[in-house]
Amino acid sequence: MSVVCCNSWGWLLDSSSHIDKDFQRCVCYNEANGLEENTHFTCCFKRQYFNILMPHMQQSTAMSGFPLDSGKHDSAEHEKIELQTRKKRKRKHHDLNTGEIEANIYHDKVRSVVLEGSRALLEAGRQCGYFTEALTESQTISTPSESTSAHECQLAAFCDLAKQLPLSEESPVHTLSRDGQNPALDLFSSITENPFDCACEITFMRERYLLPPRCRFLLSDVTRMDPLVNSGDKFDLIVLDPPWENKSVKRSNRYSSLPSSQLKKLPVPALAAPGGLVVTWVTNRAKHRRFVREELYPHWAVEVLAEWLWVKVTRSGEFVFPLDSQHKKPYEVLVLGRCRSTSDHTDRCSAVNELPDQRLLVSVPSTLHSHKPSLAAVLKPYIRREPRCLELFARSLQSDWSCWGNEVLKFQHCSYFSRHTDQEPTSDTLQRTHSHLQSTGLLETPETAR
User: Fold this and answer.
1) Alpha-carbon distance 161 to 385, whole Å?
2) CATH 3.90.1010.10 is right for the domain spanning 3-51+144-439
3) Does pLDDT of 59 surpass 70?
């Protein structure tokens, strides 16, 4: 279950467990034969990607050749390096630019909330046995990076090439069929839907991907969102994780960023249901947060209601970066707003809970870049029953959600999962397993939103 515990401060999340619940029962899907139901297997997202054992700054120091428990010579050298680093970063207040001054003001505003709220949630997590108290000798200080994966994602490049192809004039939704008697998968020009209550392994461009149960997705460039708009779906929850422009992205060249002015052109007003919730992940740059609040949301007729913080911790419950670090903060911001409702939809919106401000999401982050935790469980009380949910700029899929992006299948690649083959389950076994998962909260009912 994704929510380990919750209190008035927010929620403690287990992201890997949330991913795993979608892959308790998987089958292969063949375009010619459909579901190969004679073979079942279980998949788990590899735990190594959530194996952050110590704060990143300590980890970098240890991996650079200066162990944390080094001798006097190494310790002195380590202190010398840290002193030089502090001197470089320490600047007088009047040397800070406007953005840095704004960032410091915002940090001062939320610092006590992050500190006290995280402490309360972490203590609750320890009481239920979630956190490890100490590292063992067998645990290594190094953590895997995205570059260690056997899969190098080329989806964005394929999407760029696919822009030269004409859009399909057929139905905007392509549904996998049980018998497989349908055309070859065309993930670029139509929404692909897995309608089954089991995960499906598909082959696309000679690579294997896992599709969660009852998921929909569109793999396309930002200029080719027509199938999503033309589907006619209106979404009660839209989550965005934009590729914000920043110096780190330009240096690393990990993905293409999108100028803020281009975000205004996203068809959010056409996709959002009246009274729907819009949630945007924002970096800690003050100008991005200000842009969302003062330009983007007003342009989409979205009223800003709250800001939440995702606080990132290690497996032992430490912040991944020092809370007062000038370089990087151990948290990211979520700006939440609601589309302005018409009088016809007042009853629909009044049935949901009022959105609280300054709530925390505390979790061990993934070592994979821009792999955010799911918001499905924590946002459920603030949207109507049986909602339709959409993630824009997604890099992974969720059951009962629609997702769009030019790398929407990235973290669904089979190389990120460990696979366990099962015997053919009997109907009684399946029923008992299904009932057990529902009772423990690991399995949502099929009636939940797409």
Assistant:
1) 39
2) no
3) no
